[in-house]
Amino acid sequence: MRKQIDDIAEVAYYGSCPSEEFVRHAFPNSRIPFFCYGINVASFMDERKANLRAIEAWPEPIKKRLHFEARKGFRERLRQAAPKMLVVDFSRITRASLMRYRNTLLTVPYELLEAGPDLQREAFGIFKIIPFGCREFWTHVIAAMKAFCDFVNTEIPDTRLILLDVPPTADYRGTLIDSNTYMIDFCRWQMRYPMSRMLVDFCLEHIENSRVLTPRTDLYSDDTALYGPAPMHYSAEVWKEMAGRFHADGGFEGLPRSSDLLSILTNYSGLMDAFTRTALSNQNLHRFSLDILHGALPYLFAKISSPAHSHFGDPIDSHDVVAAFRWILGREPESAETFLNHYALPNRGELRETLLRSFEFQSQVPHYAKQQ
Questions:
Q1: 98 and 42 in contact (C-beta within 8 Å)?
Q2: pLDDT tens for residues 161-182?
Q3: Is residue 127 packed enough to be buried (19+ CB in 10 Å), middle (13-18) or exposed (0-12)?
Q4: Could you tell me where the beta strands, DSSP code E, fall in 55-127?
Q5: Fewer CB in a 10 Å sphere around the end CB: N or C, the chain?
Q6: Do residues 108 and 101 touch, judged by C-beta distance below 8 A?
Q7: How many angstroms separate the CA atoms of 254 and 358, rounded?
Q8: Which are the contacts of 151, defined by CB distance < 8 A and separation ≥ 6?
């Protein structure tokens, strides 16, 4: 059986680090006729091309990535490749926001989030940002997920689809980054994990020729991880063990058609452990952990189960956020993360009230009062 599995001629992957790593270790001798890395499914299924002339002066890594995505054609290339096996993970969908250029949907690249404020403000003027978690974001994603399932069923029905259920790990065994930084990153990724699981279950329900792979081994990250240590970057040894177990269990045919509830609950319980360890190791992080457990987590679940209808009334656009910061705080948003957090508020009134309640504005009020 091991030889038969290894002899699969063509294996494709779509997603992010997990899919790439699993294919690398489980199918080292297979040809890869198609791969797509870091592109949201809403952009993947959107065939409308875009000519992004406005970004020609941008840094090469960001420009190259956006030009590649704007050329589109992902579905057609996957259809022509018709791989025997397709490995998919949804890690990036639950991380990056979308943005619209005219009628074309694109993924906000990581490099743009890490760029300077001047470039970010320029991007806000060129693209309409669709923040992660808002109603419009999930509307596009779910519509694209339905289209993806139909595409797999009709265009590549003989392709076997492996859906990776890959939770973040709180176990870091390296030395390159400090434990507090790692645990904060883990908490953020662990909030996203249920959303990724929902997307996996959606595909299992709608694609007959699909299976789910949930790790049963002890998950940890260390300094051998391909893209550096992080909760979603498992150690090379973990991937080797996962690949070996996959083959030993019979490959695709040995994978289940339904979720492994025991593994899901065990993996998700890691958030409680992370909270305890983070709070004990650094009291300054105690409030951050509480916010995740009692505030952000229910909010994210609510976003999926019953999106707020208030997004349809008095909606916020990108210019509102910048203008509000200028008028109320006397400056512009300091980062893309700050911009997106305020852009995701339900309406302009809430945006105004949030800035007026901010510590920054409240600390300026006595100063203004003295000058009057």
A1: yes
A2: 999 998 888 889 999 988 878 8
A3: buried
A4: 85-88, 98-101, 104-107
A5: C
A6: no
A7: 54
A8: 45, 75, 79
What single string gives the DSSP state of each residue in 247-299? Answer: HHTTGGGGS-SS--HHHHHHHHTHHHHHHHHHHHH-GGGHHHHHHIIIIIHHH
Residue 312 confidence (pLDDT) above 60: no
Torsion of CA 50, 56, 60, 65, to 10 degrees: -10
- Residue 129 structure tokens: 């940002």
The whole-chain average pLDDT of the chain stands at 82
Q: CA angle 149-154-157, nearest 5°?
A: 90
Tell me if 208 sits within 8 A of 156, measured CB to CB: no
Instruction: Report the DSSP beta bridge partners of residue 265.
Output: none
Res 33: pLDDT: 96
- H/E segment holding residue 5: helix 2-6
Q: Which residue has the higher pLDDT, 268 or 39?
A: 39
35: helix, strand or coil: strand
How far is the C-alpha of 109 from the C-alpha of 39, rounded, in Å?
9
Q: Kindly give, in sequence order, each residue whose CB lies less than 8 Å from that of residue 25, ignoring residues fewer than 6 positions away.
A: 236, 239, 240, 242, 243
> Is the pLDDT assigned to residue 293 strictly greater than 70?
no
User: pLDDT higher for 2 or 106?
Assistant: 106
117-157: pLDDT as tens digits: 888 888 888 999 888 878 899 999 999 999 999 999 999 99
Question: What does pTM read for this prediction?
Answer: 0.74
- Counting residues of the chain whose pLDDT is more than 90, the rounded percentage is 46
